[in-house]
Design a protein that fits this description.
Elements: H1 3-29, E1 41-43, E2 48-49, E3 54-55, H2 56-73, H3 76-93, E4 104-105, E5 111-113, E6 116-117, H4 118-135, H5 138-155, E7 166-167, E8 188-189, H6 190-206, H7 210-227, E9 238-239, E10 250-251, H8 252-269, H9 272-292, E11 303-305, E12 308-311, E13 314-315, H10 316-333, H11 336-353, E14 364-365, E15 376-378, H12 385-405
Antiparallel strand pairs: 1-2, 1-15, 3-4, 4-5, 6-7, 8-9, 10-11, 11-12, 13-14
Helix pairs in contact: 1-12, 2-3, 2-4, 2-12, 3-4, 4-5, 4-6, 6-7, 6-8, 7-8, 8-9, 8-10, 9-10, 10-11, 10-12
């Protein structure tokens, strides 16, 4: 089978996964038709917890996914789902008094965590912009711009650059800024800056305001020159306010995700020198992940520290990002081992993560391929953004490669 046929078959597999499994699952299983919004927790065997708290992240990521899907396919059912997520975000998560997005609400809509986590604001911007790109809904663009203005006014560090992790409801300094229980209580993190850069990449496409352009460029440069270690090509996870490292762990999923998001951000910026710098760094990052974290079965292991593996399990989202990151590296370099790695990552997903009985993907497996016990298929963090976006990215990238071959 020639290379063009391999790419064509792969594209068809990925598109079928997106349109016949991932998107239908979220439309048919996760929408709460009684109370509005979405269920916050669903088990692998489809047991719904109707009383669990849910976060703005889930609604934002559903909004992004179905906006992007509608933009691509123009199917009315995808548009209806996007509007449902948009209404949920407007009604339940946007703070009508002080602006921005609440972090978490109870199942009945009562606000349970009113803090302004900058990571959460970033996904709100990202999703609202995508919804505007799909629908030309000016109010959505306005909401995304308002969130950016608030985050920039209250969260930007004018002395050292970058943004603080979290603020109170009234946008004052917060004492405990951790994104989750497994994170460190440090004023700046890789994760928040990566996804704020991603959000401003999208915002800059439709609202090239001078401040957005300036902050977007600042975030790209911080990612490349502060957050990515020039010696190892891995990202440092936590920092103090002056960008002194406060951690030694390596998150391989974030490394491979950042490798392609940096190139995308630089291309939106448009500076040829910056683009070449981003591509060169992306190759170094992808190579380091390839050499250190890609297992023999094609799965990507999770996290390592200075003394070995912290977590060698294989969660759904690093596998999705590995497919895109390795494919991006192949597009840049033409080096066949990157294409092989992307194909093996997809094969691993097909074998271990796609739930062919109940739909969607399992959250993850242990290194030996055993399903991780007691994990949820839908949760505060488990959403259609990583795997849905992977499918759309792969379809576009394989089309570009086929056109190049042709």
């Amino acid at each position: 089978m020639d290379n063009v046929q391999i790419l064509s078959d792969w594209s068809a597999q990925v598109e079928a996964e997106l349109t016949k499994n991932i998107l239908p699952f979220w439309m048919n299983r996760v929408m709460d038709r009684q109370r509005g919004g979405f269920y916050g927790a669903i088990s692998n065997d489809l047991v719904i917890d109707r009383n669990v708290r849910r976060g703005a992240l889930l609604s934002s990521r559903i909004l992004w996914t179905f906006s992007a899907a509608y933009k691509r396919y123009r199917r009315p059912e995808f548009l209806a789902m996007a509007y449902h997520a948009y209404d949920d975000l407007k009604t339940n998560f946007i703070d009508q008094d002080y602006g921005g997005l609440f972090w978490e609400i109870e199942a009945d809509g009562t606000v349970s965590n009113e803090r302004k986590q900058v990571y959460g604001q970033a996904f709100g911007i990202y999703a609202l912009v995508e919804f505007y790109r799909a629908t030309n809904e000016l109010a959505a663009l306005g909401k995304s711009v308002n969130i950016f203005i608030l985050v920039d006014h209250y969260g930007h560090d004018p002395l050292h650059g970058g943004y603080l992790e979290a603020l109170t409801r009234r946008w004052q300094p917060e004492q405990d800024v951790r994104l989750s229980a497994r994170d460190r209580n440090e004023p700046k993190s890789m994760n928040t800056h990566l996804h704020l850069m991603e959000a401003l990449t999208n915002l800059r496409r439709v609202w090239p305001d001078e401040r957005v352009t300036s902050r977007h460029r600042e975030l790209i440069e911080l990612m490349m020159r502060r957050i990515v270690d020039p010696q190892t090509a891995h990202m440092t996870l936590f920092f103090d306010e002056a960008w002194q490292p406060r951690s030694t762990e390596i998150s391989y999923g974030h490394d491979i995700e950042a490798s392609w998001l940096l190139v995308e951000a630089a291309e939106v910026d448009g500076d040829p020198t910056l683009i070449q710098e981003a591509k060169a760094l992306a190759l170094r990052m992808a190579q380091a992940v390839y050499e250190q974290a890609l297992d023999t079965d094609g799965g990507l292991m999770y996290e390592a520290g200075p003394h070995g593996w912290i977590d060698d399990s294989k969660e759904w989202w690093p596998q999705a990002e590995a497919v895109v990151g390795f494919l991006n590296a192949y597009q840049i370099s033409g080096q066949p081992h990157f294409l092989d790695a992307a194909l093996k990552s997809w094969a691993f997903i097909q074998q271990h993560l796609i739930d062919r009985q109940h739909g969607e993907w399992f959250r993850g497996v242990l290194r030996d391929g055993t399903l991780k016990a007691n994990e949820l298929k839908v949760s505060f963090w488990k959403c259609p953004y990583h795997n849905g976006r992977m499918c759309m990215e792969v379809i576009d990238r394989l089309a570009a490669l086929r056109n190049r071959s042709g």
